[in-house]
Amino acid sequence: MWRSPWKDEARMKTEGICRGFDWLPVAGCLLLASLAVSLNIGCAKSSPTDGGTSVAQGTDPAQDDTRPSQAKGAEQPPDRDSGTRPLAPTTQADSVTKSGDSAKPEDSPTPTDNPTPTDNPMPSGAPVTAGDTSPKNAAAADAPAPHGDAAPADDKPLFADWPEPAAVLFITGRQDGYIEPCGCTGLANQKGGLARRFTFLKQLRDEKQWPVVAVDAGNQVRRFGVQPVFKFQRTVDALKQMKYDAAAFGRDDLRLPAGELFAVVADQNQDGNTPFISANVALLDESFTPRYRVVEAGGQKIGITTILGDEFVSQIKSDEVPTASVADGLSKVWPKLEAEDCDLYLLLAHASLEESAAIARQFPKFDFVVTAGGLGEPTHEPEPISNLPDGSTTKMIQVGTKGMYVGVLGLFPDASDKFRYQRVPLTDRYDDAPEMRRLMKGYQDQLEAVGLAGLEVKPIPHPSGNRYVGSESCGACHEDAYDVWKDSAHSHALDSLVHPGERSDIARHYDPECLSCHVTGWNPQKYYPYTSGYLSLEETPRMAHSGCENCHGPGSAHVAAETGDEDVSEMEILARRAAMVLKLEDAERRCMDCHDLDNSPDFHDEGAFQKYWDQIAH
Fold first, then answer.
1. Sheet containing 419-425, strands listed edge to edge, beginning at the edge strand earlier in sequence
2. Per-residue pLDDT tens over the stretch 533-549
3. I need a surface site. Which of 42, 59, 406, 562 has the fewest CB within 10 A?
4. What are the C-alpha distances in Å from 266 to residues 270, 272, 333, 439?
5. d(Cα 195, Cα 179) in Å, to the nearest integer?
6. Which of 400, 422, 374 is nearest to 174 (CA)?
């Protein structure tokens, strides 16, 4: 047992306060007794978020749902993101791709300075598609689900009753920075990831020999800054390797620095092709972004364009990203797309459900509108849209969130049912593709190479003004509690990043999005350290793993009072001790900072907290 070097007198004083109370004045004893009745001790944490890779540079601010890069002073918002390079049109023998007009300067007015209505990528609004289930179980649906928890329709054999399709559309979107499942609760319990997506796409092309047109509704990342730029780069690289034919720009993609965006897209555009197309958004040079694309696959001619919803257009503040309203953009693009005489017209709408449906009513000749709107899991089938003009049969396809699902739309031009659809969860039934594992390894290597400083992750003072002292300092007096901690998984939390059991070839202990819940002294939801928290195994080994202070708060003031390093009154000593105590109900909320729906979904089951608490009760 590690012992504090504190002098015996200070130690005796501390033990008297913490255990005996016999030397205290009566008033002090009564106060402490009342505190003991009203307060409880508890909580534990350990579980990271997911990271990605890339090959570019940037700066790392943040938005509400992701982790911030650090600035001087106050805390910053959280931030997650992902990235990959644009894809050239499909090069299969049975597929031909043609891009339409690029944006002209007169077609793309600069954005206005309207205030941002919401920081939620997909604003809530009254659902407009029949049978829309987006609000239902939003929180639970938003979390990675175990393979065994998939809905019955997801568990049936894939394409079991399908005849041979002429071609299929491979539909994804809203990756939101989740480039791979983090594995905190075991990979079998989480869906999504580029490595699984690659494997599934390869099966359709190589094993089934189906002509595939791959499209994405946008939002590869969920914040902006250096790490999100890296993720965006890696994602665009992945899209290129997977031969995506068309991709929309998402709201958060466009929050990355315009120069970085352009550099990533241009790097993949050396052959004159990029998966990124848009009817109403361009990058830097208006001639750089095609307005639409026509892809020929399996004898089918498919016309595709994308839009960024007007609400999100209003949030773009960069003059280097020319934009137009959805109506103006599509009014110019649709006549040219219609003149291509395609067999199917597809709109990728990075917009809310409500706006996506409104666009379908205004431009009713699209066969399908793929929307990035909605919460949680996508619907099982394309849904009809209400109040369409006579003769229009446009249907809406949702992509869901966090890249957990792929929608596969089969084309059967000679059958009575022209289209068939299946929603496919990316569970552990799909092995990680080696190509994507190498990409993820490169991403983690990149994070290690630049370090926290290169990621602009700067430690800031803890709001309490106190500093972290390390769990060993706690154990000098709280021996029993310290022994419980030493025997718990929390005391080895960082080991699972340095030597991960699954995907053991990729260490993740340089990734802020993983570190924040596996070390001591970080903001777990915003992914940055406090000034006295963990920085590295070499610099701050005492702050490795998830220590006592992650739940109880930094203990410098408490320790200084107990050891006599700071001369304070007995009442102040009691007050500082009380400040370190957690009520059990408060502990549960604190635990959920790391044991969230993404990383620890079982923690949110009824009665789960008590079971977890029993393992570390102290």
1. 246-247, 212-216, 167-172, 405-411, 419-425
2. 999 999 999 999 999 99
3. 59
4. 7, 9, 23, 19
5. 8
6. 400
Q: What distance in Å separates the CA atoms of residue 357 and residue 387, rounded to the nearest whole number?
A: 9
Please provide residue 312's backbone torsions phi and psi, each rounded to the nearest 5 degrees. Answer: -75, -35
pLDDT at 190: 87
Residue with tokens 């829309």: 132
List the structure tokens of 467. 């500093």
Q: Could you give all domains of the chain from N- to C-terminal order, each with its CATH number?
A: 8-45+451-616 (1.10.1130), 95-427 (3.60.21.10)
Nearest to 346 by CA among 214, 460, 481: 214
Written as one string, the DSSP assignment of 519-534 is: BSSEETTTTEEBTTS-
Residue 131 tokens, joined:
């049978």
- Closest of 450, 462, 591 to residue 533, by C-alpha: 462
Q: Which two tokens stand for residue 410?
A: 């089969």
And the tokens for 290?
């095609």
**Cα 145 to Cα 401: distance, rounded to the nearest angstrom:** 12
Q: Which of 387, 440, 430, 434 lies closest to 405 in space, CA to CA?
A: 430
The span from the CA of 88 to the CA of 494, in Å, is 40
Q: How buried is 438 (Cβ within 10 angstroms: 0-12 exposed, 13-18 middle, 19+ buried)?
A: middle
Q: How many Cβ atoms sit within 10 Å of the Cβ of residue 579?
A: 14
Strand partners for 217: none
- Round to whole Å and give the CA distance between 371 and 122: 10
- Phi, then psi, of 399 in degrees rounded to 5: -100, -15
CA distance 568 to 564: 8
Taking only the tens place, the pLDDT of each residue in 21-44 is 333 343 444 344 444 434 443 333
Query: Which residues make Cβ contacts (< 8 Å) with residue 535, sequence separation at least 6?
Result: 452, 459, 529, 543
Provide the 8-state DSSP code for 343.
S
Residue with tokens 């239902």: 136
Give the pLDDT confidence of 154-209 residue by residue, as tens digits.
Answer: 777 899 999 999 999 999 999 999 999 887 777 787 899 999 999 999 999 999 99
β-bridge mates for residue 171, sequence order: 215, 407
DSSP 156: S
